[in-house]
Amino acid sequence: MRVFVASLATETNTFSPVPTDLSAFKAAFYAPPGQHPPTPTLCSAVVPALRSRRADGDFELVEGTCTWAEPGGLVKRQTYEELRDEILEQLRAAMPVDAVVMGLHGAMVAQGYDDCEGDLLSHIRDCVGPDVVIGATFDPHSHLTAQRVRSLDAMNAFLEFPHTDFMERAQQLVDIVLRAARRDIKPVISTFDCRMIDVLPTSQQPLRGFVDRIVALQGTGRILSISLIHGFLAGNVADLGTQVVVVTDNDPDGGEHLAHDLGMEVFGFRGSTRMHTLSPEQAITRARDAIADPATTAPVVLADIWDNPGGGVAGDGTLLLSALIDAGIDNVGIATIWDPIAVAFCKAAGIGARIHLRIGGKAGPGGGDPIDADVEVRNVVDAAWQSFGESRVPLGASAVIRIAGTHIDIIVNTNRTQCFEPDIFSNLGIDPTAKDVLVVKSTNHFYAGFIGIAAAVLYVDAGTHYPSDPKRTRYTKLTRGIWPIVENPHDMT
């Protein structure tokens, strides 16, 4: 048996001013055939999963290109077509194959392509024919389309948000594909459109219990896999929204019924799932009270949830930092402010230099004005990184600056990425546990890494140009009503 694997992924915020070109893929992650590292990445975990199964010696593995760009704006048309055709050429050279496994994201949009994953998968299906098994993993913050379902035999998405289970889900998908290629099972995909869009963190109820029940259902009867596609708020595409996916062993009726029941249960959660958010002023008051309490021995974590590069925005907002400075809270760590110009200036000045620097606020309106301050350059690193589970996420060239007269340490970086783990600080010489306040640019992926060192975690809506409110967002390509834009999209009485 012969199996081909590759990965092409990014998350596209169609409202973002930050274009995504080939350099964005090369800067974040690009592994030519056979050069994928032993550790998994978020969307290419299928590669190490297949390598592990190959040790059994019953199939030959052919690896194609694996690449990922940090979330951003529209992908350049030529970039998508070049990467797509690179993988398709590798697949044609590998023919004949018995199975194809793809690591995808599911929210990639390029100039001229609203459904990049559907386009890629349909080309793969045309290449291999109807009898070859095709499976793919997806991020739940994606858009599920009919074109993808038609092209696939099996699929799943990460269940956890934060995505702590991406390796486990890759292993599950690989197992289904290999069993199907051996004709031990016949996977069938059933879907249900929940007709809603919301933020669905699994670190809290009601999603925590829902996901636990999904996990328990998998492997019972003829159920092979269940996924919840959350949808992606920042995608102006026709198929925006939440969907449930059930993969069964040749039980389409059972799959459809289960997808419907689970989907309507999710619809019942609408409006009750978002993290409780505070204004900057409310969050700072709470943080100040915690700092003043002698019993507090750990930092308060403030999550700047909408100035999150993981959602495709620039991540150079200054609103929360400015509010902390005005409030006189001066023992703070910030991860991160995207500012390649500031990094270049710090690198030129050198470690230990004291310079006047303009920080952040450069990419566009909505995230606050640049902050002009006298700073000390505390560190400069050519290739900084942070962990995300077993993966390494590059920050690119980065610097640590301290605002004069304070202990406010700010990480400025060149490769936009959200904050995942506390080692984003410690890798650059900042002890995160010694800070009174840590500011992280992330919606919820930071949670698993930081909850163990935090006195409290506060979610802050500091404002940005991220489209966080569907009622106010101008979605021009939606072809159906979804909640909360439409109050009763299922016409329930």
Overview in brief:
With 493 residues, this protein is of the alpha/beta class. The protein has 13 helices and 18 strands.
Topology at a glance:
Blueprint: E1 2-9, H1 22-28, E2 29-31, H2 46-54, E3 60-68, H3 77-94, E4 99-104, H4 116-128, E5 133-138, H5 146-151, E6 154-157, H6 166-181, E7 187-193, H7 207-217, E8 223-229, E9 243-249, H8 252-268, E10 277-278, H9 280-292, E11 300-304, H10 319-327, E12 331-338, H11 340-349, E13 354-359, E14 371-388, E15 391-403, E16 407-413, H12 423-426, E17 437-440, H13 447-450, E18 456-460
Parallel strand pairs: 1-3, 1-4, 4-5, 5-6, 10-18, 11-17, 11-18, 12-16, 12-17
Antiparallel strand pairs: 2-3, 7-9, 8-9, 13-14, 14-15, 15-16
Helix pairs in contact: 2-6, 3-4
Task: Write down the overall mean pLDDT.
Answer: 96
Characterize the biggest β-sheet.
Answer: 9 strands, mixed
Output the CATH homologous superfamily of the largest domain: Response regulator
Structural class: alpha/beta
CATH topology assignment of the largest domain: Rossmann fold
**What's the CATH first level of the largest domain?**
Alpha Beta
Number of helices: 13
* Record field, number of beta strands: 18
Strand content: 25-35%
How many domain modules?
2
